[in-house]
Amino acid sequence: HAVSTDLMHWQNLPIALYPDSLGYIFSGGAVIDWKNSSGFGTPSNPPMVAFFTYHNPVIAQSNGIDVESQAIAYSLDKGRSWTKFAGNPVIKNPGIRDFRDPNVIWHEKSQTWVLALAATDRLFIYNSTNLRDWEKVSEFGADAGNHDGVWECPDLFPLRINGEEKWVLLQNINPGHPNGGSGTQYFIGDFDGKIFSNDNPPEVQLWLDYGKDNYAGVTWSNAPDKTGQRTFIGWMGNWQYAQQVPTHPWRSAMTLPRLLQLVDSEVGLRLASIPVPTVTTIRKEAVAYSRGEHKENLSLLTNISEHNGLYEVQLEMEKPESGELKLEIFNAVGDVLFIGYNVDQNEYFVDRLTAGVSDFSEDFAGKHVAPCYYQAEIVKMHMFFDVSSVELFADDGRTVMTEIFFPSEPYTDIIVHASEEKPLRMIRGRVFELGSSW
Predict the structure, then answer these.
(1) What pLDDT digit, counting tens, does each position of 90-121 carry?
(2) What backbone torsions phi and psi does residue 281 show, to the nearest 5 degrees?
(3) In degrees to the nearest 10, what's the CA dihedral of 57, 58, 64, 69?
(4) Can you point out the beta strands (E) in 237-306?
(5) 169-207: per-residue pLDDT in tens?
(6) What is the DSSP letter of 203?
(7) Average pLDDT, rounded, for the chain
(8) CA distance between the termini of the chain
């Protein structure tokens, strides 16, 4: 359990929920029961109610089917202590082995609680009036989206665009991502409290993040939503190699918190991601680059070892007629990461073939690509570098890529290349040194 007042600086608290005789504690979500419909609190002190999956290791080891069930716990002190409901599980296993990750929202129009649950390769939707007793009301996804793997960690929420309310369903899948392994697909449509209707044809696949390392993210319920946005944070990893990464004593990290918003594109509505505004609180020194032509490669950083690999880079460049705009990020021992935009393919890419240690998994090294949905004469790249990760928000978050890497020592240099003979045309650019969020 960790808490924050700005989503950037976090305080670790003791573990909130421990395993018990019903099993391990797997993913879920939490809501504030403002009207005390559950009866766990009082009108003056409404309970926080957490939903989670019990995963029973004994049944799993015996190859049983009913491994997972859904349960609740409640808190009356802002999540500092929790009481598990004596009537758990509140949703028993119906005979499905992969049956997990409850996500709950309050649906105002129908005045009911809604629980979204992943069931093998589709979504189950349940309703309740008291958060204890649940009725299954519909299914979604049997003939929609990607089915190359198991569906996990659903998230259903409304967003507004052009004065209209639309509903977004995040649906993680492992495997099935376009660049391999686990990833987050999404659907846009309508929801009446019981049935989710997809706006796109069933074969259309939309992906929240085209990088290899953003999975199982969730958004906040009951958080203020005054701007038609939703706050999201994901797990920076991929199940292809998550348990083999060369780190010690830690393993994995979370993405930067992001605001999700719907945007128009030439191919319809799409989901864009941008960093939360409070990312500015970790900025330190800055270097600015103004408009101009650069006949040779442009050096953004040179041998700045004291920064320890923590940078924010903002670039706006005129789109060349052909070839690539490419950042080369490297260190003195020969580790090189490439990030860029390919004009001819109209796609962004992250190339970590030579970025550092990769022999722990044959699925790790590679060049990964992402389609560009935004037709403009300007290439916008907003990047956050940590020692072992980059988060790329291109074209105001219309294309996003999150990737991890393991250089032998922190990167110290960044050079911008253009592959055509004409000069590199910079519109504006800024490089910030970043401080720690801890």
Answers:
(1) 999 999 999 999 999 999 999 999 999 999 99
(2) -70, -15
(3) -50
(4) 253-254, 258-263, 270-275, 283-289, 292-294, 298-301
(5) 999 999 999 999 999 999 999 999 999 999 999 999 999
(6) T
(7) 93
(8) 15
Instruction: Give, as one character, the DSSP assignment of residue 346.
Output: T
Residue 374 contacts by C-beta under 8 Å, 6 or more apart in sequence?
265, 395, 396, 398, 399
Distance CA 285, CA 376 (A): 31
Cα–Cα distance for residue pair 271/258, rounded to 1 Å: 12
Gap between the Cα atoms of 43 and 41, Å rounded: 7
Cβ atoms within 10 Å, residue 376:
11
The three-point CA angle 393-397-402 to 5° equals 40
291 with 316: CB under 8 angstroms?
no
- Asked if 270 and 263 count as a contact pair (C-beta separation under 8 A), the reply is yes
Nearest residue to 137 via CA among 145, 146, 128: 128
Which residue do the tokens 């000069």 mark?
Answer: 423
Q: How far apart, in whole angstroms, are the C-alpha atoms of residue 347 and residue 244?
A: 29
Contact assessment for residue 174 and residue 241, using Cβ atoms and an 8 Å cutoff? no
314: β partners: 382, 430
C-alpha–C-alpha distance, residues 144 and 74, integer Å = 35
- Beta carbons of 53 and 27 less than 8 angstroms apart: yes
Q: What are phi and psi of 182, to 5 degrees?
A: -90, 145
Say how far apart CA 18 and CA 130 lie, in whole Å: 24
CA distances to 134, 149, 180, 213 from 177, in Å: 32, 9, 5, 10
